[in-house]
């Protein structure tokens, strides 16, 4: 749906317009995108808090649904911490492109002469900084509540941080494909969850490995490898998907 | 040679060529599946360890092969569509998807039923079954995504992108699930990793596999013909063809 | 022949339920696919024929 775009947001005009009209370099465009997205988050802090609250509440569901027994919880803690973090990140993905799609900023972004895949990386980076990193920082506290064994908290944070970066990248593909669709959120989850499973396996595997004294660094290294591959390939898929969605 | 492929991209030519090959594919599929089934069910020797439940392999393995192959074929079709804009490729990808999902489901069901007498449980989170389950999710995702778009071309491109993303992920998923499985079940006995099968056992299996592939070809050719008629119904050649029939 | 009698074959050495369920559902699904595909192309052709006939009739009526 094409709308006459007259951005009412005074924050984005200077940077993006300058980048677009004066043919300014890629760096200006990237920093403008980064700045704008970060400022959007500060205006709506709820966007950043909601995934964290969801994370905490889902973790609370497990003792309620299973048992408050510390030993039982400690056994399943790595897995449910990771699943809850994954679901929280998934929930926040739907909004990644939706607001920009609805007010026409996405179209503006696509009209710039700068390569869309790179601009997309900027947006996904902000999403990770705003969602993934807080999740990684909150995880140890929730791990404590689940009687997660000592010595695994650092690896917990590291694996959630690395893994959520992969999730942001891979999930952005799904978000781009479903941004123009009604009730796209559910469909987003459907198409993107199978792709998350390897990240989950190695993410929670790292925590289990450090608890059992195994090769936790190898697990984190594989997560890093996933991240590298995702950084190389996902931006192109995201850009192509955005083009499909906007032409629908 | 190149001209042949180019012709194939034209719906009209594809329809003509598909109509010629279709009956042969059905015939081949029928013969091979019947021969393979009878051989596997009646004549092949029972397995030393698993007894007669082993015979399930003759439907499980072909279904598993096809579940994976069809997804890869869909990804190839999607790639051809995105790069060369050949619409017949997109039609093929759309038409073969349900069969791929059915085959994957068949593999899951037969694998699960096979597991009961072998391991004692209806479901086992072993590497093969788990990967098959994830593949089924991938299929359903692509089919639902394609159905949700309003415009045909957007649906085609979206499905192509998702299928290609999925196909890149399939080896990653398989490797990850295998790794996950060895971590938690060090002494697992997988269904198809066995000492070399004697000829009397793998020959009917081969026949069934080829028969299933022939079925896939026949199925896809027929459905693509339907889809071509549906999409091209306003074209002259379709109108002429049906006017003659009246 | 791997079996001594027909009832032996049906029983599949205690595994009859499993073998026949797996095989039955699999071949049943294949048969279902065949039926659905054939009915699909039949429906498409029938609808097309109808549509063309109707178009020809209205054209003929218009001209006549």
Automatic annotation (TrEMBL), chain A:
Membrane topology, as annotated: Multi-pass membrane protein
Protein's UniProt keywords contain Manganese: no
Pfam families listed in its UniProt record: CcmB
Transmembrane segments: 48-66, 72-97, 118-142, 154-179, 186-211, 217-242
Annotated keywords: Cell inner membrane, Cell membrane, Cytochrome c-type biogenesis, Membrane, Transmembrane, Transmembrane helix, Transport
Main location: membrane
Function recorded in the entry: Required for the export of heme to the periplasm for the biogenesis of c-type cytochromes.
UniProt family annotation: Belongs to the CcmB/CycW/HelB family.
Name of the molecule in the record: Heme exporter protein B
Organism: Halomonas cupida
TrEMBL record, chain B:
Cytochrome c assembly protein domain location: 18-184
GO CC aspect terms: plasma membrane
Function: Required for the export of heme to the periplasm for the biogenesis of c-type cytochromes.
GO BP terms in the entry: cytochrome complex assembly
Spans through the membrane: 21-44, 56-84, 91-109, 129-148, 155-173, 201-221
Entry's localization field: Cell inner membrane; Membrane
Membrane topology, as annotated: Multi-pass membrane protein
UniProt family annotation: Belongs to the CcmC/CycZ/HelC family.
InterPro entries hit by this protein: Cyt_c_assembly, Cyt_c_biogenesis_CcmC, Cyt_c_biogenesis_CcsA/CcmC
Pfam families from the UniProt entry: Cytochrom_C_asm
An example molecular function term from Gene Ontology annotations: heme binding
Protein known as: Heme exporter protein C
Keyword terms: Cell inner membrane, Cell membrane, Cytochrome c-type biogenesis, Membrane, Transmembrane, Transmembrane helix, Transport
Automatic annotation (TrEMBL), chain C:
Membrane topology, record value: Single-pass membrane protein
GO CC list: plasma membrane
Keywords: Cell inner membrane, Cell membrane, Cytochrome c-type biogenesis, Membrane, Transmembrane, Transmembrane helix, Transport
Alphabetized InterPro entries for the sequence: Haem_export_protD_CcmD (IPR007078), Heme_exporter_D (IPR052075)
Transmembrane segments annotated in the record for this chain: 20-41
Main location: membrane
One Pfam family of this chain: CcmD
Subcellular location: Cell inner membrane
Single biological process term from Gene Ontology: cytochrome c biosynthetic process
Function text: Required for the export of heme to the periplasm for the biogenesis of c-type cytochromes.
Family the entry assigns: Belongs to the CcmD/CycX/HelD family.
Protein name according to UniProt: Heme exporter protein D
């Amino acid at each position: 749906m094409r709308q006459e775009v007259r951005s009412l947001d005074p924050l984005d005009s200077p940077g993006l317009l300058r980048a677009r009209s004066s043919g300014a370099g890629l760096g200006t465009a990237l920093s403008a995108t980064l700045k704008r997205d970060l400022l959007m988050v500060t205006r709506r802090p709820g966007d950043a808090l909601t995934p964290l609250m969801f994370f905490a509440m889902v973790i609370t569901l497990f003792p309620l649904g299973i048992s408050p027994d510390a030993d039982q919880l400690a056994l399943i803690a790595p897995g449910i911490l990771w699943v809850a973090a994954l679901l929280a990140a998934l929930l926040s993905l739907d909004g990644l492109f939706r607001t920009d799609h609805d007010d026409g900023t996405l179209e503006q972004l696509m009209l710039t002469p700068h390569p869309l895949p790179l601009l997309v990386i900027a947006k996904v980076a902000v999403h990770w900084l705003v969602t993934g990193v807080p999740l990684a920082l909150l995880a140890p506290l929730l791990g404590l509540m689940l009687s997660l064994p000592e010595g695994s908290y650092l690896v917990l944070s590291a694996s959630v941080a690395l893994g959520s970066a992969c999730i942001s990248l891979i999930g952005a593909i799904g978000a781009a494909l479903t941004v123009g669709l009604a009730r796209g959120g559910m469909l987003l989850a459907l198409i993107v969850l199978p792709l998350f499973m390897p990240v989950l396996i190695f993410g929670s595997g790292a925590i289990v490995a450090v608890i059992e004294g195994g090769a936790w660094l190898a697990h984190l290294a594989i997560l890093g490898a996933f991240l590298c591959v995702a950084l190389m390939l996902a931006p192109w898929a995201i850009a192509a998907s955005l083009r499909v969605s906007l032409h629908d | 040679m190149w001209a042949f492929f180019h012709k194939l991209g034209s719906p009209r030519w594809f329809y003509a060529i598909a109509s010629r090959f279709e009956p042969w594919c059905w015939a081949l599929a029928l013969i091979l599946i019947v021969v393979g089934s009878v051989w596997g069910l009646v004549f092949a020797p029972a397995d030393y360890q698993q007894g007669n439940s082993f015979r399930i392999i003759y439907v499980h393995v072909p279904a598993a092969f096809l579940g994976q192959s069809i997804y890869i074929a869909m990804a190839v079709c999607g790639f051809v569509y995105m790069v060369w804009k050949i619409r017949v490729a997109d039609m093929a990808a759309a038409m073969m998807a349900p069969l791929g999902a059915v085959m994957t489901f068949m593999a899951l069901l037969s694998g699960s039923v096979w597991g009961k007498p072998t391991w004692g449980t209806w479901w086992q989170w072993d590497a093969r079954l788990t990967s098959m389950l994830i593949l089924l999710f991938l299929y359903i995702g692509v089919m639902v995504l394609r159905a949700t778009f309003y415009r045909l071309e957007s649906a085609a491109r979206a499905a192509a992108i998702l299928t290609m993303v999925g196909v890149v992920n399939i080896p990653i998923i398989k490797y990850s699930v295998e790794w996950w499985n060895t971590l938690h079940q060090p002494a697992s006995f997988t269904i198809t990793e066995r000492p070399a099968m004697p000829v009397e056992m793998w020959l009917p299996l081969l026949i069934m596999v080829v028969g299933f592939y022939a079925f896939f070809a026949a199925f896809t050719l027929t459905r693509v013909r339907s889809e071509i008629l549906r999409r091209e119904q306003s074209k002259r050649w379709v109108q002429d063809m049906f006017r003659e029939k009246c | 022949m791997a079996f001594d009698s027909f009832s032996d074959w049906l029983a599949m050495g205690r595994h009859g339920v499993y073998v026949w369920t797996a095989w039955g559902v699999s071949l049943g699904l294949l048969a279902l696919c065949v039926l659905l595909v054939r009915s699909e192309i039949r429906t498409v052709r029938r609808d097309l024929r109808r549509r063309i006939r109707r178009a020809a009739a209205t054209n003929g009526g218009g001209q006549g």
